[in-house]
Amino acid sequence: MTHLVETQALTHRYGNTIALESLDLSIPSGAVYGFIGPNGAGKTTTMRILTTLLAPSSGQAWVAGHAVTKEPRAVRRMVGFMPDFFGVYDNMRAWEYLDFFAAAYNVPANRRPTMINELLELVDLSHKRDAYVMGLSRGMKQRLSLARTMVHDPALLILDEPASGLDPRARVELRELLKELRTLNKTIMISSHILTELAEMCTHIGIIERGRLLASGDVASIMRSLQTHHVFEVHVLNDLEVAAALVRDMPGVLDVRVLPDALPPMLHIDYEGDEHSVSDLLARLVAGGAAVTHFASQVNDLEDIFLKVTDQKVLL
Ligand SMILES: Nc1ncnc2c1ncn2[C@@H]1O[C@H](COP(=O)(O)OP(=O)(O)O)[C@@H](O)[C@H]1O
Ligand SMILES: [Mg+2]
After folding, report:
1. Are 266 and 259 in contact (CB under 8 A)?
2. Would you say the CB of residue 17 lies under 6 angstroms from ligand 1?
3. 11: helix, coil or strand?
4. What local confidence, expressed as pLDDT, does residue 304 receive?
5. 193 lies in the same domain as 245
6. pTM score of the predicted model
7. Ligand 1 pocket, 298 CB below 6 A?
8. Cα separation of 144 and 246, whole Å?
9. What is the tens place of the pLDDT at every residue in 251-297?
10. In terms of residue numbers, what domain contains 279?
11. 126: in domain
């Protein structure tokens, strides 16, 4: 089987609010799937359905071929879920916390001590084995929570905004940990409303907004599909406004922005067209007397892609 997660026309309503609208999602086995969208987009709702915590209003979702509404027990065996909040566990030590959840998943008592030590090692918390959970830093709690999602050795990890509220250092640690999980052949679905959090670690992305999937696929093909739209950064030694006027009315030019306060001062040209007409753009500038010292297409990164597919809407 190539897709570990599949949804078809997945729809969810809370009263009159449509949280998910006919979502068709697929996540290949072995992917790190970044599920990206602003607050209220429907990420948590999707994840709760995939983990069998919430029944969809209509449509269906499958994990490893098991329908979430028909075979919830089989689905739960496959999935480890890290919710976007961490419960309160007074007077519980790190190892006891993992022991508790392992017992809940029927891991035999004689296998638990070794497994707990291995998990603590994996998330770099061996030194906190006997520490109280409530005394751990936020980053440590997140890592412990991640260890907890793995006590039953699930194929799929669903992590709801694991990086939110972490300081930069804890984020780097989380990223390293996710890399390690990939080498353990886990498929990972990870959500965020901040794109840059996920930019470096995903193989695939899905962009969701207001309950609809706007784009989904491997990072390279999503980039390619958007590649006809370029932003050129142009440095000229003489008047920027004059240079801008030269290209503003050319076919394919969508927008020209003059940035006099940038270092160095520059133009940004939004342009839609193929390679040949790109050279026309440069030729026009030069022929018109602009002293061009730099002319380059800005590299599309995930942030650009997100802004394009969500129609320049600002992230919350
Ligand atoms: N329990 C709930 N009751 C009513 N509305 C909800 C509930 N949970 C979420 N919603 C609404 O559903 C939409 C999607 O929410 P959610 O899935 O939490 O989005 P995200 O995780 O992307 O921020 C939002 O409009 C939110 O207000
Ligand atoms: Mg959420």
Report:
1. yes
2. yes
3. strand
4. 65
5. no
6. 0.77
7. no
8. 59
9. 889 899 999 988 899 999 988 877 677 888 899 999 999 999 999 88
10. 228-299
11. yes
